[in-house]
C-alpha cells in the first residue's frame, strides 16, 4: 500500500506512521528503528524508561489497576465480570483515554504494542484452557429434550437473525461479507456458562428446574459455538476470504478431537494414576499439563483453526474428578484473571471507537440492533417452551439467561477483527450490544422472574409432633472440621432405633467468594464433595464426609447423605432452608459461631457464621438447634466417636416454660432409653415473690403454664419407672436464684450437655432479671446465653432449641413479597391449626 503521510503533530523520526481507513487507525511500523542502547546501558541511560521491559511493566500495572477499579465498581451492582472487562477496555479506547496524546505515546505507544499482544494472547490461550477445564459435559443429559431443543433452536435462530442484522450498521467489505456475517452471527449465538451459573447462584435458582435447564442448554450452546468458530477459522484465511485448504483444516481438527477423546483423556488418567501418590499431584504434573496446553495450541494453529481451539479441547480432555484439575485451577485462575487477562481487555478496547460508530451509524439503527440482539434468544426460547409445555415464565427466564455473554464473545469478535471480517463499525456495534445485554440479564430476572413458592406440607416440622415409629430427619450444618465431633456425638445420643431411624443430611457450608469458579457452583448439590474446591476445602470436605458416613457404617438405624453448599454468607440460609424443606426434616442443627479457646472459654467467633445462624432462626421451615460445643468435643477426643456408647453422659434439660422449652424437652425425651444416657429434667417454677413483682408477665405466663403442665405431667407419667430419668422442680424468684440453682446442680453432677429452649423475646417471671444481665447472644436466648457465659459450666456443651412456629415466621417475612398470596395464607392458617392440635400433648 502507499506510504501514508506523517501527521503534522507527529515527530518524523519515530518508528511508525498512522493513517485512517474504514478499519480505523492503521499503523505502519518502521523495522529500521534502532533500539536505544548505544553507549549507555541499563540504568546509566537517560532513556532507559523507553526500553521494552519498563514499558511492559507499566502497561501491566495500569491494566491491572484499571480492571480492578472497574470490577470493584460493578461487583456491588451484581453485574457479571464481563461488564468490567468491556469497561476496562473502553477506558483506554479512542473514545476515552485513547485520544489523549500522553497516554498514546507515553503509556501505550504503538511500537511496544506487539509485546503486550503477545502476552495477552498467551493469557487468552490459558484462559480458554480453563474454560474447557471447568466445563462438565456430564451435565448434558441426552434423555432431556428441553435443553437440547432450546440450545439448538436458539443457535440456529441467532445465526439467521445475526445474518440479517449484519447488514444494518454498515455494508461491510464485499470481499469479506461471508466471513463477517459468520463471525457476527456466531458471536450473537454464544452464551457464557460461568457467568450464567453465577447469576443463577446469586438468585438461588441453581437447584430449580429452570436453572438446570438453563445450564444444560448453555453448555450445549457453548459446544455449538466452538464448532461454528472452528468452521469459520477453517473456511476463511487471514485476509477474510475463502480458504482453499478448508477441507484439510476441518479433517485435521476432527482427527485431533478424536485424538483428545481416545488418547489424551485415557492417557492422562493412566499416567497420573501411575505417578500420583497419596492423592496429591506434584509440581511436575502441573508443568507437564501446562506444556500440553501450548503443544495442543500449536497443533491446531498449524491446522489453521487458531491455537485457542487446541487449548480448549485439551482442557475438556482432562478427566473429571482428577486432582490435577483443582491444582491447575488454583495456580492459574488468579494469575490469569487478575494479572494477565486485563492486557487482553485493553487490546479489545483499542479496537473500539464509539465516536467513529456514531458518525457513520444513526442512533436509531444502533438501538434497533441492540434490542434485536437481546430479543432473539428470548423469543426463540419462549416459542420452544410452548411446544415443550414449559411454563411461559420459565421460557422467558431461560431465554434471558441465554443472552449472558463473556470472554468467549470477545474472542469471537477479535478473531473476526483479526482477519478484517469485521470493521471498526461492526466490531464496536457488537461489543456495545453485548455490554447492554450482559447488564440487563440479572436485573431483568430479578424483577420479572419470581419462582413459584410451592407450599411443602409435612406434619413433622417439630420434634414434639414426631411419633416414636416415624424416622427422625435432621439437617446438620458445619463450617469446618472442628464443628463435626460435637455434632456427631450429639447425634449418637439421639437414640436412633429401627422403629425410629435417624436420617442425617450433613452439609459442609463453604463461603462463595469472588474467585470461586462456576465449576464449583454446580457441584454443591451432589451427594459427595468433589475436587473442584481448593486443596484445603477439598481435603476438609472429604474428612467431614468420612466422619458422618462412618456413623452409617456403625449403625443400622442411621442413614447419612453428605453434600456441600457453596453460597455467600448473606444468602446461605436460603440453601439451608430450601434443603430442609425438600428433605422434610424436623430439626436443623447449627454450630455456634464462637469457637472454644484453650482455656475453655468462647472466642470472638465468625461474624458470617453468626449471620447465617440468625437468618436460619428467623426463616427455618422446622425446628432449629444451636450447639455450643465444649464438653462434647472433649469427650470425643478421649474415646472413639464410634464407641461413644461406652461413655456415660450426664444430660440436663432446664425447663422454664413456653413453646421452645417444650420442644427442648421433646428432644431430651428422645435420648431416654439408652444405657449410656442419664437425663435430669429441672423445672424452674416462679415463686410467689416472682409472680407478684412480674405483674403483666405473670398473666402471660399463666396462659402457657397450662400447656407446660400437660407436657411435664405426660413426661413424668411415662418415665416414672425409668431409673435413668430424674425430675426436679426448683422454686425461684429471680435470675440470681436461677444461677444458684444451676451451680447447685453442677456441684452434685458434672453434666456433659445442657438442653434448653431459646425462648427469644419471651420473658417469664423466672427470666425477667436475667434478660438484662445476659443479653450478648440473642440467638441463644436468655438461659442459653447464661449457661454459655457461666464459669462453672464452661466444661459442658449447650444445645439451644427453637421450635418451629408459623406465627413466628409471619413476623420475619412481612417484608417479603408474597407469591400466590391466597395459597400462602391458607397454608399458614393450616399450620397454626395444626400447632394448636399438638400443643396439648407430646408424642403418642
UniProtKB/TrEMBL annotation:
List, for all copies, the residue spans of the domain called Cation/H(+) antiporter central: 502-633
Q: How does it sit in the membrane?
A: Multi-pass membrane protein
Q: Spell out the molecular function terms from Gene Ontology.
A: antiporter activity
Q: Which InterPro entries match?
A: Cation/H_exchanger_TM, CHX17_2nd, CHX17_C, CPA2_transporter, Na+/solute_symporter_sf
Compartments where found: Membrane
Any one GO biological process: regulation of pH
- The membrane spanning regions, by residue number, are 82-99, 119-137, 149-168, 213-232, 244-265, 285-314, 335-352, 364-388, 425-449
Compositional bias (Acidic residues) at which positions? 828-837
Map out region (Disordered) in residue numbers.
810-844
> Where along the chain is composition biased (Basic and acidic residues)?
810-821
The signal peptide stretch is none
Instruction: Give the main location.
Output: membrane
Any single GO CC term annotated in Swiss-Prot or TrEMBL for this entry: endomembrane system
* Domain Cation/H(+) antiporter C-terminal as annotated: residue spans: 651-805
What UniProt keywords are attached to this protein's entry? Ion transport, Membrane, Potassium, Potassium transport, Transmembrane, Transmembrane helix, Transport
Q: Which domain of life does the protein's organism represent?
A: Eukaryota
Task: Specify the Cation/H+ exchanger transmembrane domain's residue ranges.
Answer: 70-446
Annotated PANTHER family: CATION/H + ANTIPORTER (PTHR32468), GENOME ASSEMBLY, CHROMOSOME: A04 (PTHR32468:SF123)
Concerning its family, UniProt says: Belongs to the monovalent cation:proton antiporter 2 (CPA2) transporter (TC 2.A.37) family. CHX (TC 2.A.37.4) subfamily.
The name this protein goes by in its record: Cation/H+ exchanger domain-containing protein
| The organism of origin for this protein | Brassica carinata
